[in-house]
Structure formats: C-alpha cells, structure tokens
Design brief:
It contains 11 helices and 14 strands. The chain is α/β, with parallel strands linked by helices. It is elongated and about 70 Å long.
Length: 353
C-alpha cells in the first residue's frame, strides 16, 4: 500500500489526513512539531503519541526524508550536500555560515531547464519539479546537522538548482510553511527568491503580499549579450524584466537585487558597467556582482581582480548600491549543479568502463 507523506503538509492538512484513523485534532499539531521542529523521519520516536497510534500511523503514512549521497566542506565552513530523494534522484543543498547566522541555499527542481551557459545545473536539463516536502526536507536536514551545535538555519536562499518560478505553487507553499509557528517560524524577510526573469511569476509573486527579497539574474545590460548567456531573455527581454521588477518593488516596498555574474571578455567591460549603472539609476535596487565559478564544459573564465574592482567602482561612482559577493566554497564546487554534475559524470564513467 502506498503511504501518504505528511512532510510538506500544513497542520490543517495533517489533521484532515489522520482524522480517519481516529486521531484527535491536537495530534495534528503534535505531528507537525515532531516533523518540522524535532526533525523526525518516522513515527516510532514520537513518544507523546500512544503506541497504538504510532503503529497505525506507520501503516498509512510516511515522513519525507532525504539521505546523504555526497558531501564536500570548504575551509570557510561552507558545506555542500548532495541529498538523495526517495525516488533515487538527487539535489544539491548548500549551508553557508555567516557572522550574522546560517544561511541555506535550496534547490527547487532536479536539474534546470533555463539553459544559462554559466550554470552547471543546466548541463543535464530539468528532470522534474520538487514537492513542498522535498524542498523543506533540505532545510530540515541542515537544521538537524546544525542542532548538534545548538544552531539553526536563520535564512533561506531559493537559489539552488532549478527555476523557482517554474515550480511556483510548491515554492510558495514551502515559504508559507516555513513561516508557520508550528514549523520553523521564519520571517518572510529571511527568504530570498532568485529567478532568471519569468515575468508572469514575478507579477504573481508581487500580488501575494509576502515581503520576500526578489533576486533577478540579469548578467548583462543589453539584450544581445543577455540572450547569449540566458536563452530565457528571448522570451522575456531586459525591458520587460525591469518593468516587472519595478512592479514588485512598488508592491513590496523592498529593493530588488540584480545578480550579475562577471565573465571575462563577455560582460565585464567598463562600457557595460556604465550601461548597467544607467539602467539602474532611478530604481529601488542593488547589484550583487558574482565572479563566475568556472564551468570547464562551457569555457568560461572569471575576470582579473582589477577588472572586477573597476566594474564595482563604476557602479558605486554612479550611486548604485553594489557589492562583490563574498566567495564561499569555491574549492568544493559550491556553485549550482557542480557537485551533482561531478557525481553523474562519475557514474557515467563507471558504466562505460
């Protein structure tokens, strides 16, 4: 008999699911707290539930769990986990410790279909969307690891493999569930959602009334260069993306972050920096400059440090709020998709040997 997974459900949904087994409403909240706050992955250890109820729950339900397939840790504490899902597929999750707390970067799809040339997530295409429970299980796994040190996840970056707005319903419910007091009780402002620029999704998010930080992958100040880097630009060119971002900023009252991956000889010139400054001059925005994590399969390289600094100085001189992202985990392939790609390539090599 196929079991119903409770992880990813709101407490009202859990109550409704277990009611036919004769469990009282308050048991639903107990189950939610075991799953989301105590990181339970089965019913046997839920000691405030009667034994007969635990046996009954085990017969009909399961709790979404992930298992560790691979792990790499950098000297700065950045840790990348390749987490196996119940169907054998795997996704990447990255823990990034900061002075102000722990941030976790989660994936929303297995692989990615956006085709951005600088991102390893796209090398194998998109396989499928993740469920609420599968996205949440990544955070729960990291929280369980951190609990050993009496720490927890303080912020979530929805910037791992996949395009979040292409999996809109599941991603939004993930954010809402994390916000619930019986779950992780996280502020909406502790979430950053990164998109390649799916305009309908941006407009839909603007109408939700939840003040998450919106980050848009821009990576070029002109349509010709951006289309070379990001095929999605042919559907949603820069002008329409900026218009949608402006609507989001107006609706939320929050600055939009523009991510700009600097690639040597492609989008790192002084002229491009000046054009970017012109585009952003009167917008509620900031820029996050990201020296590219080299993807050998694509032949892309990062600019020299002097060129990165010059690009930054031009933006700052134009009164644009801009920073260069602090590099974390470069030696462990912390960029999206790199560890999964390494593991998949290793399996392919073994099969062909």
């Amino acid at each position: 008999m196929e079991k119903t997974n409770l992880c990813g459900m709101f407490v009202e949904e859990i109550i409704a699911a277990v009611a036919p087994l004769g469990l009282e409403k308050y048991r639903g909240r107990q189950l939610a707290e075991w799953i989301y706050q105590r990181y339970a992955t089965d019913f046997a250890g839920m000691t405030n539930l009667p034994m007969d109820k635990r046996i009954l729950l085990e017969e009909h339900f399961s709790v979404e769990s992930v298992t560790l397939a691979a792990q790499e840790e950098a000297a700065d504490g950045t840790t990348k986990y390749l987490l196996a899902l119940e169907d054998g597929l795997a996704v990447e999750t990255v823990l990034m410790p900061h002075k102000y707390g722990n941030s976790v970067c989660v994936s929303t799809q297995v692989g990615c279909g956006m085709g951005c040339v600088f991102c390893a997530s796209t090398l194998h295409g998109v396989v499928r969307n993740l469920t609420v429970g599968e996205i949440l299980a990544q955070v729960l796994y990291v929280n369980q690891m951190l609990s050993i040190k009496n720490e927890k996840v303080d912020s979530v970056v929805i910037m791992g493999s996949g395009e979040p707005l292409a999996n809109y319903e599941q991603v939004l419910n993930f954010i809402r569930l994390c916000h619930e007091p019986y779950s992780m009780n996280m502020s909406y402002r502790s979430f950053t959602l990164s998109t390649a620029g799916l305009v309908p999704g941006i407009d839909r998010l603007a109408g939700e009334g939840i003040p998450v930080t919106l980050a848009i992958s821009l990576h070029a100040p002109s349509n010709d260069v951006r289309s070379r880097l990001m095929p999605i630009n042919q559907t949603y060119p820069i002008e329409t993306v900026f218009a949608a971002a402006d609507r989001y900023a107006s609706a939320s009252g929050r600055r939009v972050t523009y991510e700009y991956t600097l690639i040597a000889g492609i989008n790192d010139s002084e002229e491009q920096a000046k054009e970017l400054a012109r585009l952003l001059k009167y917008r509620l925005a900031n820029v996050n400059l990201i020296p590219v994590n080299p993807v050998p399969e694509r032949g892309l390289f990062r600019p020299e440090k002097e060129k990165i600094q010059r690009f930054l100085q031009i933006l700052q001189a134009a009164k644009i709020t801009a920073t260069v992202r602090r590099e974390m985990g470069t030696e462990i392939r912390a960029a999206c998709g790199q560890l999964r790609h390494k593991v998949l390539n290793g399996k392919s090599s073994q099969r062909s040997a």
